[in-house]
Design a protein that fits this description.
Blueprint: H1 16-23, E1 32-36, E2 60-61, E3 65-68, E4 78-86, E5 100-104, E6 116-119, E7 123-126, E8 130-133, E9 143-144, H2 165-173, E10 178-182, E11 186-192, E12 196-197, E13 208-209, H3 212-223, E14 226-233, H4 237-250, E15 254-258, H5 269-275, E16 279-284, E17 287-288, E18 292-300, E19 303-310, H6 314-332, E20 342-346, E21 357-366, E22 372-376, H7 385-390, E23 393-397, E24 409-414
Parallel strand pairs: 4-5, 11-14, 11-15, 12-13, 15-19, 17-21, 20-22
Antiparallel strand pairs: 1-10, 2-9, 3-5, 3-6, 4-8, 7-8, 16-18, 18-19, 20-24, 21-22, 21-23, 23-24
Helix pairs in contact: 3-6, 4-5
This protein binds adenosine monophosphate (AMP) and magnesium ion.
Magnesium ion binds next to loops.
């Protein structure tokens, strides 16, 4: 008997940019907390810190040498009497008279009436506390003016800044010990699949190690979130529902499910999430890797939980975390976000792209010309972790991009 083909209508593929916009819609901004500078690296500034002091607090020498009055050396060289010493932490606190100078060291206060430093390489010490200056400098040379770095009450950094080690050093120098930063988003991670066993165990027949969360947790941490790894959940609706409840009860703002996002019999994220009253915004995106994908929201007592339902293939999980979870983490903290796309030069030809945006694993190296050389790996299956591990970037291709030749410009983003 002839079988009649059943036509399955599937929702159209959604553009990555649109999916990203939907996933970030109506996100709340988290509250703030004060933390020690020592714990503030990569945190996001919640208020503008003002300088509590002026730096340098006094005109300071930038070199080891002699602090003198330039007018005493109008001919360019000359001999001066050395009347004292100014070292860092031990200044010379009398004004200097004409014809005299002070031995001075880097960071030391420049005595009053001195306006120039002659560096020690250009000076010859003589007997009887005298020195011969072999080459005079322009007035003001090698003197760091008071307040040359920052002034009392100066605005040091803008809110939304993701604090770098340089920022932290500035805050410390300006008299701060603590800084007000946004709370870290709590990101729950649920690994789904009957085939999964925990890291550190030996898989039985038909089993594999649940590796995705290990990489995803590391990315969440680096992005400034606090990961809450809820472990492995079997392909079993009650277990998945209870994991979502754990995420809600913990007060997570975001939950990532890894796996179970397709439309197969064992893909339970969608039915369970909807069964709990969750609202799903999209289901398939025009992206490779990562077509099965969900964005959803679920109200709980502790606030709204946003869902990113990511595909279980290991590389897809990581790429989707980078493209979708990281901007959400930034938005929850009110931080400026850039996906860091750059232009490079393709090292080998590529065929035309299809209807999905492509994020291929590639190796990017710096060229002496100042450009980046971008070499995609031949194998791109989204299960291949050894290729992902060997790559340092994702090559980015728009939908239906024409075939490219070696030497063509190509966009990429470092992992
Ligand atoms: P799924 O999205 O659940 O259909 O899974 C797609 C593929 O990814 C399957 O081969 C799974 O075995 C694999 N997979 C799913 N979850 C994980 C995980 N946590 N770690 C490693 N592989 C996984
Ligand atoms: Mg599965």
């Amino acid at each position: 008997m002839a079988c009649r083909a059943v036509k399955v209508t599937r929702p159209p593929l959604m553009a990555v940019s649109e999916a990203r916009a939907i996933s970030q819609r109506d996100l709340p901004k988290l509250g703030s907390e004060w933390v020690l500078l020592a714990h503030a690296n990569n945190r996001v500034l919640a208020s503008v810190p003002l300088a509590k002091l002026t730096q340098p607090p006094f005109p300071a020498s930038a070199m080891d040498g002699y602090a003198l009055r330039a007018e005493d050396l109008s001919s360019g060289t000359g001999e001066l009497e050395v009347v004292g010493e100014s070292a860092a932490g031990h200044g010379y606190h009398q004004p200097i008279a004409s014809g005299t100078c002070v031995r001075i060291f880097t960071g030391a206060p420049v005595p009053q009436h001195a306006d120039t430093i002659a560096i020690q390489e250009n000076a010859t010490p003589l007997a009887n506390r005298r020195v011969k200056i072999d080459k005079a400098e322009q007035p003001g040379r090698y003197i760091r003016p008071a307040g040359g770095d920052f002034q009392l009450n100066q605005e040091l950094l803008a809110t939304g800044t993701r604090l770098t080690p340089q920022n932290l050093a500035l805050l410390a120098a300006a008299g701060h010990q603590h800084v007000e930063v946004r709370q870290r988003p709590l990101v729950a991670i649920i690994s789904t699949g009957d085939e999964l066993v925990p890291v550190g165990t030996v898989p039985d027949k038909d089993q594999i190690i649940s590796s995705n969360a290990t990489g995803v947790v590391a990315r969440i941490e680096a992005a400034g979130g606090t990961p809450l790894d809820l472990g492995i959940v079997a392909d079993e609706p009650v277990a998945l529902e209870s994991a979502f409840e754990q995420a809600l009860n913990a007060g997570a703002q975001l939950v990532l499910t890894l796996g179970g996002a397709s439309a197969g019999d064992h893909d339970l994220v969608r039915p369970v999430f909807e069964g709990m009253g969750g609202q799903l915004d999209l289901y398939r995106i025009a992206m490779r890797p990562g077509k099965p994908f969900m964005v959803g929201r679920l109200a709980g007592d502790a606030g709204e939980l946003r869902l990113l339902g990511l595909p279980g293939n290991p590389v897809s999980s990581l790429v989707c975390t980078k493209l979708f979870a990281e901007p959400i983490i930034s938005a929850l903290m009110g931080a400026t976000y850039s996906d860091g796309k750059m232009w490079g030069t393709l090292a080998q030809p590529l065929g035309a792209n299809d209807e999905r945006e492509d994020y291929s694993r590639c190796l990017v190296t710096a060229l002496p010309s100042g450009s980046w050389s971008v070499t995609p790996f031949a194998k791109q299956d989204s299960s291949l972790l050894h290729i992902a591990a060997a790559s340092n970037a994702l090559l980015c291709r728009p939908v239906h991009q024409r075939a490219l030749s070696e030497g063509d410009a190509i966009q990429f983003m470092f992992w």
